[in-house]
Amino acid sequence: MNPFQIRPSSHALRLLLSFLLVPIIPALSSPADTATSLDDAVRQLVERVASIPNLHGPLRLIFLSDSSFSSDTAKEWQATFRNEMAARSLALNDDPNAPLLRVGVSETPTQLVLSASAHVADKDEARFLTFPRASFRAATLPVVPIRVEHQLVYSTSDSILDASSLWNGAETGMALLLVRGAEFSIVRLDSSGQLAQTIPLSAANRSPSRDPRGELNLRPGGGSVLLADKSCDFTWLPNAVPNCHPTKSDWRAPTVLTPSCNPGGWKLLADGADWTTADVLQVVPDAPLRQGSAALLSDFPGPILSVSGEQNPASALVVAKNLQTGNYEVYKITLACGN
């Protein structure tokens, strides 16, 4: 399994990229992995700001935060920043003509990133500090480090619309909803990925559209398939014919994963609906108070067609089309604890 790259959310990424484009960037500092607090981190940032050559007050301060801290916590660290600036005789005011000092705090599930930038003597100056999240006290940062692991588990030239693990009993393997030629089919694979059973959905009495959609929902002994305007119940019994009937399609809600170390939950979202371009999987904190946290992002080799949960609450199956090979691929995505 290979961990996905972890990046800040789009707002934080734009902020950090804007800092990285300045002419002078001192080396990124990584404080020691000892227990600290957010106030301690802010004090270290102020020390870096105070060391900027020719920086003089009064300065106009703007805070840019992309983190899961509560509003009370945000007020506290911003007050600490102001107090530490005053202690170093760097005055602040709200004069729109005063030199601007931008201060940012952003999070990833493994790091806290503090940054500051100012235009001084015809040059842009930036300072950064990064801290491992694990070095902060739990009361300060409630979200533990999380990483994403992924594994390619199946690939085929047939069009896969959805994938689901076989959930019950000792049986293992996977079920797929496929488009073969002009017909929908349900395919059961054994634990080694070999074909075990095929159930044609000719009873659905419809041909796939240009951009077909479908969902598999398994239960003991069989399951159901949801299509654009029909639902078909089926069993794994030999020669059983699916029972299809008209229905209104309410597509699957976003999948939420809950690793053991973080029961607050992480929502899996696809980046867009364009099936002709590469897609991005976003892993976003699900709790409302954590919506500001940075998402985990990862590029896929093509569009993401479906995301479905597994029996393991920390795992899901993601179906994507590989635009380079033309194959349809199923990935197992797992949220694991730790850096």
Order of H and E elements: EHHEHEEEEEEEEEEEEEEEEEEE
Our count of helices gives 3
Measure the end-to-end span: 15 Å
Main-sheet strand order equals 1-6-21-20-19
Question: What level of helicity do the residues show?
Answer: 10-25%
The coarse silhouette is elongated
Mean pLDDT: 77
* Beta-strand proportion: 35-45%
Q: Quaternary status of these chains? A: single chain
Largest sheet, in brief, is:
5 strands, antiparallel
Rounded to an integer in angstroms, the radius of gyration calculated over CA atoms is 25 Å
Low-confidence stretches: 1-35, 138-143, 289-293
List the helices and strands and how they pair.
Elements: E1 2-3, H1 10-20, H2 38-50, E2 60-66, H3 71-87, E3 100-107, E4 111-120, E5 123-132, E6 146-156, E7 159-165, E8 174-180, E9 183-189, E10 195-200, E11 215-219, E12 222-226, E13 230-235, E14 243-246, E15 255-257, E16 266-270, E17 280-285, E18 296-299, E19 304-309, E20 315-321, E21 328-337
Parallel strand pairs: 2-3
Antiparallel strand pairs: 1-6, 3-4, 4-5, 6-21, 7-8, 8-9, 9-10, 11-12, 12-13, 13-14, 15-16, 16-17, 17-18, 19-20, 20-21
Can you give a write-up of this model?
- The chain is mainly beta and 339 residues long.
- The chain has 2 domains: 9-139, Rossmann fold, CATH 3.40.50; 147-337, no CATH class.
- 12% of the residues lie in helices and 40% in strands.
- It contains 3 helices and 21 strands.
- It has helices at residues 10-20, 38-50, 71-87, and strands at 2-3, 60-66, 100-107, 111-120, 123-132, 146-156, 159-165, 174-180, 183-189, 195-200, 215-219, 222-226, 230-235, 243-246, 255-257, 266-270, 280-285, 296-299, 304-309, 315-321, 328-337.
- The strands form 5 sheets. It has a 5-stranded antiparallel β-sheet with strand order 1-6-21-20-19, with no helix packed on it. Strands 2-3-4-5 form a 4-stranded mixed β-sheet, with helices on both faces. Strands 7-8-9-10 form a 4-stranded antiparallel β-sheet, with no helix packed on it.
- The protein is elongated.
- It starts with a strand and ends with a strand.
- The model is unreliable at 1-35, 138-143 and 289-293 (pLDDT under 50).
